[in-house]
């Protein structure tokens, strides 16, 4: 195992750690880790990311469920419509994206590069949401707005299917604002939603013959260690302050990705 691999597996632990602490955000690092540290093609990297995020979040959600911190009614309202959008996105939308995405004279944009540019754009939006997020320490009392949760679930499903990230940076605020969940319960519930969404998305890629299961399981094991550590540390760390700090890291990685892709062009 060389230095780059060690850094990559260390980053896997960090990604799992953040999911355990904040209910999302860490998954958005998995695609850049696969692409830039392990030299995996972007489309395949999104498939790997879905499996890693799904497995890691599933372990975390079991831990949260045993502590009775997961709201299963809200999970169903959000996740069921998301199931359909994430599966259809992986099975139909992503394969249908032309390669190159466009071609004009001597200028063209390959599919892989287009996905990375879109991913970097989403990372910037995620970083902004995490850094400038509203005060979510207080839940909004009242009856959960399940219709709005379902619409949000559809949108998050498309995003998850396209870029291979769980969308926790969008899910947690919606669970607080639309479902009235306290922040820690929203974090626990979001981890289950991310797990199911990611596995549904990955199921749309099971037909691929280029999946390296040995590497994938190895990487996932490190990420699972991270989420277990994150769940333990969550008792001592505020998710709100953590996400602000992590948002700065996500912004840095997004800028790095953009500069890297522009220099390649």
From TrEMBL:
It holds the Pfam family TauE. The chain crosses the membrane at residues 6-38, 45-66, 72-93, 114-133, 153-179, 186-203, 215-234, 241-259. Its main location: membrane. It comes from the Bacteria. The keyword Nucleotidyltransferase does not apply. Keywords: Cell membrane, Membrane, Transmembrane, Transmembrane helix. The keyword Transmembrane helix applies. InterPro entries: TM_pro_TauE-like (IPR002781), TSUP/Inactive_protease-like (IPR051598). It is a multi-pass membrane protein. It is found in: Cell membrane; Membrane. Belongs to the 4-toluene sulfonate uptake permease (TSUP) (TC 2.A.102) family. This is Probable membrane transporter protein. It comes from Larkinella insperata.
């Amino acid at each position: 195992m060389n230095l780059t691999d060690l850094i990559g597996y260390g980053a896997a632990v960090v990604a799992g750690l953040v999911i355990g602490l904040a209910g999302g955000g860490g998954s958005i690092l998995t695609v850049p880790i696969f692409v830039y540290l392990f030299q995996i093609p972007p489309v395949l990297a999104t498939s790997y990311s879905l499996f890693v995020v799904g497995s890691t979040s599933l372990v975390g959600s079991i831990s949260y469920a045993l502590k009775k911190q997961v709201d299963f009614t809200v999970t169903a309202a959000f996740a069921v419509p998301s199931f359909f959008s994430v599966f259809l996105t992986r099975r139909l939308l992503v394969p249908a994206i032309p390669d190159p995405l466009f071609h004009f004279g001597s200028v063209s944009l390959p599919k892989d590069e287009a996905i990375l540019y879109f991913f970097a754009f989403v990372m910037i939006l995620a970083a902004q949401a995490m850094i400038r997020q509203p005060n979510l320490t207080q839940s909004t009392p009242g009856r959960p707005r399940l219709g709005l949760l379902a619409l949000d679930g559809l949108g998050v499903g498309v995003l998850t299917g396209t870029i291979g990230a769980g969308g926790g940076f969008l899910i947690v605020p919606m669970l607080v604002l639309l479902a009235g969940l306290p922040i820690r319960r929203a974090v626990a519930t979001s981890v289950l939603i991310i797990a199911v969404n990611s596995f549904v998305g990955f199921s749309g890629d099971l037909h691929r013959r280029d999946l390296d299961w040995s590497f994938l399981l190895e990487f996932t094991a490190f990420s699972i260690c991270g989420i277990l550590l994150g769940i333990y540390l969550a008792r001592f760390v505020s998710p709100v302050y953590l996400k602000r700090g992590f948002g700065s890291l996500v912004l840095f990685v997004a800028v790095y990705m953009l500069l890297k892709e522009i220099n390649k062009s």
